[in-house]
Amino acid sequence: MNDPLDLLKHFPPIADSDWQNLISKDLSWQTIEGINFQPYYRRGASNLQHLFDQNDWLICAQIQSTEILPALEDGAESLSLLIDQPTTLSKEMPVDKCPLYFRGKAVDTNLFYSLCDIVKSKGLDPSEFQGAVAFPEPIEPDFVFEIAQGTRLWTHEIDLCHWHDKGASLVQEIACAFAQLSDIMAQLKPGTSPNHLYLRIPIGERILLEIARLRALKIGISTILQSYQAPIHCLPFMGVSSLRHKTALDQDTHMIRTTLQYIAAIIGGCNVIVSSQNRNELMIQHILRNEGKLGIVSDAATGSWMIEHLTNALAEAGWALFQQIESLGGLQKARSWIESNIEQTHDQRSQSILSGEENIVGGNIFLADTFQNETPEGKSLIAPLDSIRLRTETIRYKGNLTVQGRCSPWLYRLINLCGLKMDDHQAMITVIETSDGYIARNSNDQQISFNHGAPLNVTAGRLMTLMESHAT
Amino acid sequence: MRPDFSSIPLIRRGITPNIDRSGSNLLRTCDHFDLESCEHLDYSAGLPPFLRGPYPSMYAERPWTIRQYAGFSTAEESNAFYLSAIAAGQCGISVAFDLPTHRGYDSDHSLVHGDVGQAGVAIDSIEDMHILFNHISLADMSVSMTMNGAVLPIMAFFIVAAQESGVMPQQLRGTIQNDILKEFMVRNTYIYPPQPSMRITGDIIQWCTENMPRFNPVSVSGYHMHEAGAPAAMELAYTLANGLEYVRTAIDRGLDIDSFAPRISFFFGIGMNYFIELSKLRAARILWARLIKPFEPKNPKSMALRMHCQTSGYSLTAQDPRNNIARTTLEALSAVCGQTQSLHTNALDEALALPSADTSRIARNTQLILQEETELTRAIDPWGGSYVVEYLTHTLTHHAWSYIQEIESIGGMTKAIASGLPKMRIEEEAAVKQANIDQGKEIIVGINSFQSKSSSEIRLLRVDNREVLANQSKRLSHLKQSRDSSKVEQALEHLRKCASQDNANLLDVALIAAKERATLGEISAALESVFGRYHAQHEPITGVYSATMETDECTVKAQSLSDEFAKLTGRRPRILIAKIGLDGHDRGARVIATAFADLGFDVDIGPLFQTPEDVARQAIENDVHITGISSLAGAHRTLIPELMNIFQRDGRSDIKVVVGGIIPNEDYPLLYHSGVVSIFGPGTVIAEAAQKIINQLLDHVSHP
Amino acid sequence: MSLIPDINSLAKGILSYDRGCLSRGITLIESGLSSDRDKAQLLLNKLLGHTNSALRIAVTGSPGVGKSSLIEKLGLHLTESGNRIAVLSIDPSSPNTGGSIMGDKTRMPQLAHHEDVFIRPSPSGNTQGGVTHATRSAMLLCEAAGYNPIIIETVGTGQGDYGVRHVVDFVLLLVLPHAGDELQGIKRGILEIADLIAVTKADGDMKSKSGIAAKSYQHALGMRTNKLSIPKVLITSAHDNSGISEVWESIQSLETDALHHGHFQQRRQQQIKDAILEATRSLLLSDFNGSEYRSLNDMQQKVVNSKSTVHEAARRLLNEYLQSQK
């Protein structure tokens, strides 16, 4: 019985209008980047862009110098060390085992030269050794490139985390990366190869956009380098985990995010991916490579109608913003302008998370019942909420609260956040719904009023104070 | 010179991809693939063949349903779990039943004491069903029940319990798995032989089509084939071929295709190979539409494949369980990018025991993060157009189609399963995969690479099943006292009569029995008296494991050790591989059997569902050196000590007992204390286990 | 290795129907160690007076024909009438790895569960075909343990099927309900030794086909020359449980007939003679194999260089062996 598959015979191609007719709502979507996207892209003009050929990446562990051996045993293929204090490098640095990346406030020429010495002392060729000695700001591009001449070391870091931690959107990060690159290239002697440059990029969990952003960066970087007539057209990417949504009081849940971030970093084409000191995070990389088979295909997103569209959209928007920065004279001159833009984005983002408009699982919704006494992650937008929850724990007092009237989802969230229980019988606090918000009263008749939708951490803080004064 | 960027546009280039072929069979020929020649590139979502999704707007209008499968030993505990899960964001209920229920036994049946309440909830009567759904409005909550063997009494209890709480059948939403063909193929929780089983399936499809328009009467499952070792194209082909068989069954009864086909749903497993798994789901939709089209449906929905997915349990490791969070995340991502309609994500300790509240929470959060924080719910089929995904979709579609044609040439799935072909194919793949893992060719983190030095500190959920047993027994005797026994007997007699003739819908008849408070065991036994209980017979495969292992050092050592043993004692080492209790998953046992035979052992395979007495008798009759018990479902804690006692009683404590499978660390002392000599957890290299066993035997020979 | 109690206890145990002792006795017999073989002979000696008491039946046929299913139904039928039966089945060992998989009990689960039944699967081991003195001796032990009849189940390919007729009173050959092409495929030889033929799986769609198949086999049997009577061809279905009692009745009438005409005893006597010769051959062979021969390598070279024939080389080797025995 041979029945051929013959798809087109049974199902003719579908026109755009056929699908459109089935849709009654506007399903387009916007993100904080301000770009409008469709839910759905189809085969159109050829948008096959294959942007990079490298398909595997170097697994990197960020460690203290005492943890070198365990990290290597756990399969780290490169090591990253933070040098924030003046340090003498030990002769036991494993320069023969893997690339080493040094970065931090105290990286200086001493460190650079002692590294080269160690390399030589182990009988290795310093011109072959891979790694980074990333000099801190302020940097003289000419100087760091000269010192590195003849080696393969990366000495100049373009750190997108700087913008990311200030609250930048993806478009802003892209634009700043372009602008920084342009500033650097402008300062270099013409014809100098920028092969000691690398980018350090924080990867978030909006997978499709993160993949697109990495590809968008490659397009723009290539354009800029070509415009400066540089001999190379691409730069290495070091991907690190974004800490913006780090839920310190829910580490296991956060591992889900970390996994998604690494996936985006791999598919988007990072050359190195850095895990923190946690062994689990290293294992995630091993699993994604060996079991998930990610990294076999280079630029797997090639041709994906959605991701190519996102790539182009982010690239165009980033480029347009970059052009604006250039017209203001470059990044150094336009710094305060772009930083105020970024601050607006930050405020918008922070507000939506702290009010509960945007859900962060384990951070402002679906909270864990019990948690360890962890330190909130400073760079996380969840930190204020984590602090409040820790405060509940430190006073060791989970009180009861009763609500008169409707308990809205926002109020429910607030109560959860404070670790309070709803119980009519032994309530210390009564919350009453008013026409424009709520009033909370304790049994000493002290009261506060707050609005619906206010930042949860602030309101929680006031509520906690109210409760604490009941206790005394 | 600083260029004037205001006049410089972005420079783009479009080049052909250079895809590295190493490591994945399916990607090997990608280089020569001409994307433009694909037939399916202009299909869309919501229109046949539904490549990009069964609905036009997919997640953009409504995200997939988070549906976590759970069963706690008693109906009360399960109910409590459902209520808290609903409060924590879950939108659908999924019920897991215990093995005695699956096989049609009441909890107080003599054969099942080790298995009651393990791996799922014990349902003996409609009263248990009432408790299960206490405070849950069945008119508002979608309920998915994984039941195949004892599907008649369970459906009957469900429908009548709903009616008694004021919800009519027309209002009920959800799914019953009711996929008996795959039971015969891989899962072994059938009760009756194939023909009467298919009749029951048909009766349920018909009854639901006529009375429960919002309920899916069958969930054609590929998950279990996936877990048994079937690669993607095979899982696709055999699942869809099963579905086709059910469609034909319904059509043969005179049902119109459009009256039931839109309610057929599917259930796939999601493994770790990210791009292949996501493409598999797309291929499934194309293939199903293609299979249904010849029935000339007027309603296009009849061709739309709707699916539930579950992340693969097989891919999880008991070692270093925290690693499983990443695995489940990747698999969930795959399912979501593949546009599944509902999803179950495994908890990180799912390989060890029933998930605890903490680990269930993380499992659920995986989906919640995907819904809330990734923007994936905005996009319809985001990977569409990707060179590698479209290549894989194309290849899997064609590959699966050829498997389907092969089944058709045998005469359809019922005949094919009777011939043993699909099961044999799957077993071969499983043996190959095991050999690859044992050799280290296929890397599993924590098992054959990057092993953790410390043991895991996970609090496991233990089921003290003696208490469950006692409670269920009490409840049963109370039920039997308070009901009208003559009416029950009447209903059961009526059931028997209708079973032996072909003139009534058995679900109709079972409803009456359920109302009168007949138990699950009584209903099943009534049918068994007419249909008989089925015992499957399967030819084991040989030579596949050893062929794949080739000249691996470990294998060679094991083989020479068994030769040495044969020379020394005059017999080859002889091992009985037995399955105790009601657990029907035999992939592991069968892989071990074929591997051991290839390593020079004489291997006796025991039938499924054996009691400790059965196993002991077999071991003694065959005079084996070792008895290997395979345990996946927790019954080992009671049944293995029983076995050891019987050996003692019969004077054969010289027969060594080893245990393999999912054994939590906490149980090791108990087992060793009862006399077990070795315990092999998942991830044990088979050739190493063989060496250990023979060395122990050799030791014993020199120092008896 | 089991802690085998002494031979006396074993013998006693077997005679008192102790399943464990019978099992260990069979293990002794199957063992390749010469010390075990000696012990096995001692054991047999002790039990000789209690043997020759059962009907011995072989059930043979190609893989997939349904031997186990039929044996299960037949066995259950027999136990219902109060018989205690033993089933010895032989599964092929891999020539490469030496191992084997024996899944017979999975195919006869109800029978395996029955109190009055003893089922022992055995690997064929190194012996070609596997049915040798070991099977014969195991059968004798089962008889001493009071089982009657004894059923030997073998795969009907290779020399095993020839071997089995030297050990049993009747050979039941099972065939599938396809006539025509399959018939050509069945080896001439196996048809020659069958005493009774049963078509299996005659259920459902196959019912009509089996009638036709039965007739074809009957016809083929009619062309045999060296049998006094032409065996019957029966139609059975394990699934429907049909034809099973007819099989047993046919066997019983064959037995009555053969006893009446003296063929039964003749056959057994011939078998004993054959068995003695076979055992002698086997001793000779193991003795021969146990030594090393200088001439082997020389002769091998000569034949390779076309300086001698294989036959001449064999003669030379035999001479060397005979010399070494002096």
| Dominant shape of chain B | globular
Q: State the low-pLDDT regions of chain C, or none.
A: none
Give the SSE order of chain C as H and E letters. HHHEHEEHHEHEHEHHEHEHHHH
CATH class of the largest domain in chain B reads Alpha Beta
Describe the structure.
The complex is a heterotrimer of chains A (472), B (704) and C (326). Chain A has helices at residues 7-10, 16-20, 68-73, 109-121, 141-148, 161-166, 170-187, 207-227, 251-268, 279-290, 305-327, 331-354, 383-394, 409-417, 456-471; strands at residues 29-30, 36-37, 58-63, 78-82, 100-103, 131-134, 156-159, 197-203, 237-241, 272-275, 400-404, 421-422, 429-433, 437-442, 447-451. With 472 residues, chain A is of the alpha/beta class. Chain A has 2 domains: 58-345, TIM Barrel (Alpha-Beta Barrel), CATH 3.20.20.240; 383-471, no CATH class. In chain A, strand 5 (100-103), helix 4 (109-121) and strand 6 form a beta-alpha-beta unit. In chain A, helix 7 (170-187) packs parallel to helix 8. Chain B is an alpha/beta fold. Chain B folds into 3 domains: 63-176 and 468-530, no CATH class; 186-213 and 222-402, Methylmalonyl-CoA mutase (TIM Barrel, Alpha-Beta Barrel); 544-702, 3-Layer(aba) Sandwich (Rossmann fold). Chain B has a 5-stranded parallel β-sheet with strand order 1-10-9-8-7. Chain B is globular. The N and C termini of chain B lie far apart (90 Å). Chain C has 3 domains: 1-50, Single alpha-helices involved in coiled-coils or other helix-helix interfaces (Up-down Bundle); 52-263, P-loop containing nucleotide triphosphate hydrolases (Rossmann fold, 3-Layer(aba) Sandwich); 291-325, no CATH class. In chain C, 54% of the residues lie in helices and 13% in strands. Chain C has 15 helices and 8 strands. Chain C has helices at residues 7-15, 19-30, 34-47, 67-80, 104-107, 109-113, 133-144, 160-164, 181-185, 188-193, 206-222, 244-261, 263-289, 294-304, 310-325; strands spanning 56-61, 85-91, 100-102, 117-123, 150-155, 170-175, 196-199, 232-235. In chain C, helix 11 (206-222) links the parallel strand 7 and strand 8. Chain C is globular, with a radius of gyration of 22 Å. Classes of the chains: A alpha/beta (472), B alpha/beta (704), C alpha/beta (326). Chains in contact: A-B, B-C. The interface between A and B is large, with 98 and 103 residues.
